[in-house]
Amino acid sequence: MVDSSTETNEQTAPSQEAPERVLAATGVRRSFKVGDRRLEILHGVDLELYRAERLCLMGSSGAGKTTLLNILGLLDRPTEGEVEVENVRVWQLGQAQRSRLRNAKIGFVFQFYHLLAELSALENALLPAMIAHSAATFRSKRAGYTNKALEMLTRFGLAERLTHRPGQLSGGEQQRVAIARALLLDPPILIADEPTGNLDRATGEKVLDLLFEEQETRGLSLLLVTHDERLAKRCERIVHMEDGLIQADSRTPIPH
Amino acid sequence: MYRFFLSLRYLRARKTNWIGMAGIFVGVTALILILSIMSGFLNESRKHLRGNLSDVLVQPMLDYPIKGKGAPRRDVDALLEIVRSDPRVAASAPQMVWYGMISAENKEFYASDQERGGLAVANLVGIDVEAEFAATDLRESMLREPAPGTTTQRPADVDDPFAPPPGYQPRGFPAESIIVGERLGAAWGLQRGAEVEIVTATIDPESGRTRDPINQTFVVAGTFRSSHNSMDLERIYFDRRVLADWLGREDDAFSQVLVKLHDYEGDKRAITEDLGVKLHQAGFLHSPESPLFDEVKTWEAFRRTLLAAIENEKSLMGIMLSLVMIVAGFCVFAILSMMVSEKRRDIGILCALGGTPKGIMSLFLLIAFWEALIGASLGVVAGVWGALRIDSIERWLSAKLNFQIFDRKVYLFDHIPSVIQVTGVAWIVAGALVCTLAFAMIPAWRAAKLDPVEALRFE
C-alpha cells in the first residue's frame, strides 16, 4: 500500500472545499542528548491534520511515531520547526496558554488508559473540566458537566460502573472511561496512541467501534497511532513513518 | 478546581499522609504543652524571684554627699510624702534592712556546721506594718496556711502582728515581737511564744569601724509563708522602730522605700525617672544622671540578672523545641517525595489533560497544607486540653505508673504550673504551617519540573 501514492498532503486533500487544517507540524526536528552526542529522532517532519479526518500513523518501533505524537500533543517541544493548533503557533504561547489550549483542543487516549487510580469512573471523566475551571466556576457548571459525562458513560455501557475505581474495571471499560474523559470538553482533535494495544481483539474491536462512531458523529480529527493493519484499514488516511521521516501518505475511501 | 479536589482525595486515599499529619500533631501538641508548662514555671519563678519586693524600690545612698547639697536628707516621712503625692503610686512603705545571726535554744538537730555553732544568718527587716501591708503581699503571706507537716503558726492577730503572742511567759524582761520566715521557724523549731537570741554587729558612722557585737532576745509572734524560698528561710520581720532602736539608729532610720504602682507595666519607666528627679530636687537622692547611683529602680532591674537568665532559658527552649517542628517537616518532606515518585504517571496525565506545572506544584503544596492544618488543629486541641489538665494528667499517670513524675516538694509548688499563651500557640501553629510548606516546596517543585513525556512513559 505504500506504493499506492506518495503525493504530498496538498495534493491528497479533498478538492471540493478548502480543507480546514486543525493541527499542523512544519519542519519538525527533535533530537535528544545521549551522553555527549545528540541523537536526532525526527529529521524534519511535515504533517497536517484536517477537520473531521481519520489519520492513522504507522511505522515500525523506533520510527519516531511516539515522539511525533508527543510533539503534536503539545507535550514535547520540537528542537526545530513549528506546531500549530487551529493556526495558532503553540510554542509562541506562554506555558499557561499552551496548557489551556491542550485542555480545550486536544483529547488524549493512551494505550495504558492512564486513569487516576484514586478517582471513580465518573470523576475521571470529569477531570478535564475540573482542570479547565476554578473551584467557583466548576461548581456553577458542575451539573452540566456531570450530565454530559453520565450521558457518555451510559452510552458506552458503563452506567453500572460510575462509582467504580479504575482498579475495579476491566481494560475495555477503563479505555471507554478514558475516551469519555477525552471527549468531555468537545475538543476538535483526538490523539489516540495504540488505543487497543493493551486489549484483546474482541474488546479492542468494540472500543474502536465506539471511538470511530464518536469521531464520525462529532466530526473529530482523529490522529491514531497503531501497529495494527486491520485497524489502519478503517482509516481514510494512512501515514507511514520510517527513520524519523514520513515515507508515505495515502488516502483511501473507507470501506464501511 | 482539580487541585483542591485531588489534594483532598490523595490525602484520604494515601494512608502514609496520616503519618505526616500525626508527626505534626505530636509536634504541635508537645510544643504547646512544653511551652505552657515552661511559661508556668517561669511565671512561678518570676513570682518567687520577686518575693515581697514591691514594684519599685527607692534605695538612697545615704553615705555619699549630694553634689552641691551636702549629706542626703534622712527624713523618711518627707520622702514618703513626695512619693505618695504621685497619682501613679498606689502605696509605699519604708523598710530598714540589716543582717544578723539567730541563735535559738531547744534546737533538736543540726543540719550544718553553722547550725552546730547555734547560729544562722538572718535578714532583719524593720517594717511599718500598715504601710507594708499596703505595698507588699506580707499580709497574705502571714495569712497563708503553713506548709503541710510543719508545726509553725501564723501570728494570732495578723493585723497587729507585733503584739505579744497570747500566753507568752517571758523569762526575763518581756521581749519585743518578731515574725519569722516559715522555713526558718520550722528548721529551728520556733513555736509561737518561743524566745530567740539575735546577734548582730553595727558600724560606727563616725569612724566607719565595726562596733562590738550586740545581742538581744526577741519573742516569736508567728511565721509568714511567702513561698519565696530564700525569704522564708532567712527573713525576720521587726517593727521598724524596734529594730532601729536596737541598732542604735534614729527613729526614722530606713534603708529603702518600697513603692507599689497602680499600673506597673504602663508606668514603670516613667515613674522611676520622675521619682529620681523629684527626690533629687528634694535633697534625698543623687542626680539620676550620675551613672554611679541607681537609686530608684523597678524590681525587675533589681533582679535583672536572674530575670535575664529566665528569659534566656525561655528563648533557648523555644529554639530547641522548634527542632521538633523541623522533624515533623522532614516527615512531610519524605512522605511527599515518596508520593511524587509514586504519582509520576498521574502528574503526566494531569499535564496531558491541561494541568500547568504551577497547578501541579500547588496540588502537592495543598496536600502538605492540609496535613499541616489538620495536624496542627488537632495538636492545638490536644495541647491546650493537656496544658489545662496537666496536673490531673500527671497525678493519674503517676498513680498508674506507681512513680512520682513531678515531685511537688522539690519545686515548692502544690500543682504543676501551666499558662496557655495565645500568642505562643499562634506562633506554634504558624511555625508548623510554614515549616511544613517550606519542606513541601522541594518535592512539589520536583513534581512541577517533571517532563510529562517521561512521566507518561512511567509504568
CATH architecture of chain A: 3-Layer(aba) Sandwich
Coarse shape of chain B = elongated
Of all chain pairs, the largest interface belongs to:
A-B, 33 and 26 residues
DSSP helical segment count of chain B: 18
Please state the oligomeric state of the protein chains shown. heterodimer
Give a short account of the largest sheet of chain A.
6 strands, mixed
Question: What features would you describe in this structure?
Answer:
With 256 residues, chain A is of the alpha/beta class. Chain A has one domain: P-loop containing nucleotide triphosphate hydrolases (Rossmann fold), CATH 3.40.50.300. Chain A has helices at 9-12, 65-72, 95-105, 121-132, 135-155, 171-183, 201-218, 229-232, and strands spanning 21-34, 37-50, 54-59, 80-85, 88-89, 106-109, 189-193, 221-225, 237-242, 245-251. A six-stranded mixed sheet of chain A has the order 6-7-8-3-9-10. In chain A, strands 2-1-4-5 form a four-stranded antiparallel sheet, covered by helices on one side. In chain A, helix 4 (121-132) runs antiparallel to helix 5, helix 4 runs parallel beside helix 6 (171-183) and helix 6 packs parallel to helix 7. The longest helix of chain A is centred in the middle third of the chain and has 21 residues, at 135-155. Chain A starts with 8 loop residues before the first helix and ends in a 5-residue tail after the last strand. Chain B is an alpha+beta fold. Chain B folds into two domains: 2-47 and 307-457, no CATH class; 56-303, no CATH class. The longest helix of chain B is centred in the last third of the chain and has 39 residues, at 304-342. Chain B starts with a helix and ends with a helix. The model of chain B has no long low-confidence stretch (mean pLDDT 85). Classes of the chains: A alpha/beta (256), B alpha+beta (459). The A-B interface holds A 70, 73, 75-76, 95-96, 99-100, 102-104, 108, 110, 112, 114-119, 123, 127-128, 130-135, 137-139, 181 and B 1-2, 4-6, 9-10, 13, 345-346, 348-359, 452-453, 456, 459.
